Amino acid sequence: IVSKLPQTAVNIFSVMSALANEHKAINLSQGFPDYPCDPQLIKLVNKAMLAGHNQYAPMAGAVELRERIAEKADKLYNAAYNPDTEITVTAGGTEAIFTAITAVVNPNDEVIIFEPAYDCYAPAVKLAGGIVKSLQLHEPDYRIDWAMVRKLTTNKTRLIILNSPHNPTATILNEQDIKELTSLVKNTDIIILSDEVYEHLVFDGHKHLSMAAFRELKERSFVVASFGKLFHTTGWKIGYCMAPSQLMNEFKKVHQYNVFSVNTPMQIAAAEYLKDENHYLGLADFFQQKRDYFREALAATKFDLLPCSGSYFQSVTYRNVTDEKDSDFAVRLVKEFGVASIPISAFYSRAGNESVLRFCFAKKQETLDKAVERLLNL
Ligand code: GLN
């Protein structure tokens, strides 16, 4: 069989989580909480099931959930999305990203991606026949060089994929980025795919700058969000996408033949839970405390900490420790020290070594303590 994705292997999250399980290591690799979600959420799912919400949801998602999503976007970003025509509930952020790319990228269209990039973007572009144009971001701040973006932009540029807060670098877009982006896309047909699954995890008093919040960007953007990050339930695989009706119309054509609709009881539960905004407004503080705790503890190790302004990831460089490739070092860290991380080189299209590891701190304090205790042995 001729592979459609010859360069693509099993993704790094599956690989590292499996390795962590095999060696009973502390798993700070794949991003997911190791503490329970709010028991009230589970009760709500139960309630929805008992009330008979066990058949197909509408293709775009349960009506009450789309209404709550529209209210949330209005409240947080002053953005008006019509729940009937501009919002679709998806099987996680990943399905939303894949669907948006499939819906708008034609063969030979160019798609701009910033590297390190979350691993699902490029394969989706390639499957659609598009051409990935990647721009490198550089440690420690990983800021976007907009002059370079301008150079990379051609009349074939169909899509720019943005991700703020950024996985894996934990950076966030600022006002200047928004200005540059707005002027770049002005008078073009460029579409934006904005992966904002960590929208609530922004620290140090900064505000998340959503594409939804800026009229000239909103009108050309798919905005992707995730209930896994919102409710600490990554295993539920529910997210959503918001976009102006013309874009959403194309999005739905793909979504309906991919998953058709997402499981009903969890949508009903999510809709009920979202009525209380306190269920998400406290997330930034909750994770900032974890970040601070983890950073302080890590400071005693031989690692050098990279900045972390958002998301639940903390990256480190380890040039003081070894010149091994990050992909090798990450494996050795599991086997010899019992801690699993993600090597950042997995987020680049070119093979190489970045000497950077990413750790997830969405974990119980005792898990972070144990991990750091082991890392102190380095
Ligand atoms: N988003 C998660 C991470 O970055 C992984 C999700 C997945 O495993 N597909 O760790």
TrEMBL record:
Its cofactor is pyridoxal 5'-phosphate. Pfam families: Aminotran_1_2. One of its GO terms (cellular component) is cytoplasm. GO terms for molecular function: kynurenine-oxoglutarate transaminase activity; methionine-oxo-acid transaminase activity; pyridoxal phosphate binding. It comes from the Bacteria. It is an enzyme of class 2 (transferase). Its EC number is 2.6.1.88. The keyword Repeat does not apply. CDD domains: AAT_like (cd00609). Gene3D superfamilies: Aspartate Aminotransferase, domain 1, Type I PLP-dependent aspartate aminotransferase-like (Major domain). InterPro entries: Aminotransferase_I/II_large, Kynurenine-oxoglutarate_AT, PyrdxlP-dep_Trfase, PyrdxlP-dep_Trfase_major, PyrdxlP-dep_Trfase_small. Keywords: Aminotransferase, Pyridoxal phosphate, Transferase. Belongs to the class-I pyridoxal-phosphate-dependent aminotransferase family. PANTHER family: FI04487P. This is Methionine aminotransferase. It comes from Mucilaginibacter ginkgonis.
